[in-house]
Amino acid sequence: MSRDALPPLHLLLALAVVAVWGTNFVVIKWGLEAFPPLTFAALRFTFALLPAVFFLKRPDVPWRNLATYGVLIGVGQFGVLYIAMTQWISPGLASLVVQVQAFFTIGFAMLLAGERVRTYQIAALTLAGGGLAWLLTHTDGDATPLGLALVLFAALAWAGGNTAQRAAGPINVLAYVVWASLFSAPPLIALALVLEGWPAVSQSIAHATAAAWAAVAWQSVGNTIFGYSAWAWLLARHPAASIAPLALLVPVFGMGASAWLLGESLASWKLTAAALVLSGLALNTLWPRFAALRAARTAP
Q1: pLDDT confidence of 156, banded at 50, 70, 90?
Q2: Which one of 64, 130, 161, 210 has the largest count of C-beta atoms within 10 Å of its C-beta?
């Protein structure tokens, strides 16, 4: 077995995480049938915070850093993503488009840390940008211009959150996400009350079915508690180059689950766009490892 190869059980755990993260877009759609989007997001982060915050020590990072991450991820990423998915973009395409956060993250690193853009990153961005442009020329009920714009904004906020987390240094990722939810839930609750109104908020909660609460639990426990803790556990035991590429399967699970469970079409134009975006993401993720291996083999 290769030094970087994952043991079978560890590989299954990694696949379980990306399956949860990918199929979550279908669960979001189901949850939005019961809750207004900002109410749904507020519930997600409330139950990500409670009761876990009482069992996890606060990371040794400034409150300002936690607040930045919490607002960007809670309101900027998921609040806006949920709004987009109410009617302006399908779950499968949302799971694909939001992955361009990787390129926004690179952009923030260039602006804030002075990192230099690499040739392969330009090529990767060109491929992914071509996929997004292709989506724009084929917008329909599955992807409207407004939906694409909202999900791109969510991706930008996700990248900002990534930048804040990176600035925090080595941390317990699960504890960081849980404590940051202290700054996600309150603004989402306030926005829900202002924009959606107390009658809509209270009635959706009062009439929520067991399936609706299961969708909330999937967000809070499945994605946050299980997803982040399992991913961090794997990263602590294997090289990042062995784990990170598996995240490319998130939109694969997202689009597949949306087609299977929601009947979302997989038209040729949609598959072409997905192939371009995923090719760009794959190039950006895998090229450094390929280049390192090539350099090691040619070294005297």
Answers
A1: very high
A2: 161
Is 114 part of a structural domain of the chain?
yes
194 domain-assigned = yes
Residues 6 or more apart whose Cβ sits within 8 Å of residue 240: none
* 14 domain-assigned: no
For residue 56, count other CB atoms closer than 10 A to its CB.
15
pLDDT digits (tens, 9 = 90+) for 138-151: 766 677 889 999 99
Range in 76-80, 112-116, 184-188, 219-223 the model is least confident about: 112-116
Say if 9 falls within a structural domain.
no
Residue with tokens 């990534």: 162
CA distance 131 to 6: 31
User: Distance between CA atoms of 143 and 181, rounded to whole angstroms?
Assistant: 30
DSSP 3: T
pLDDT band at residue 1, thresholds of 50, 70 and 90?
A: very low
Residue carrying structure tokens 């850093």: 65
Give the domain range for residue 202: 24-298
- The rounded distance, in Å, linking the Cα atoms of 50 and 198 is 22
CB–CB of 114/257 below 8 Å?
no
Q: How many domains does the chain have?
A: 1
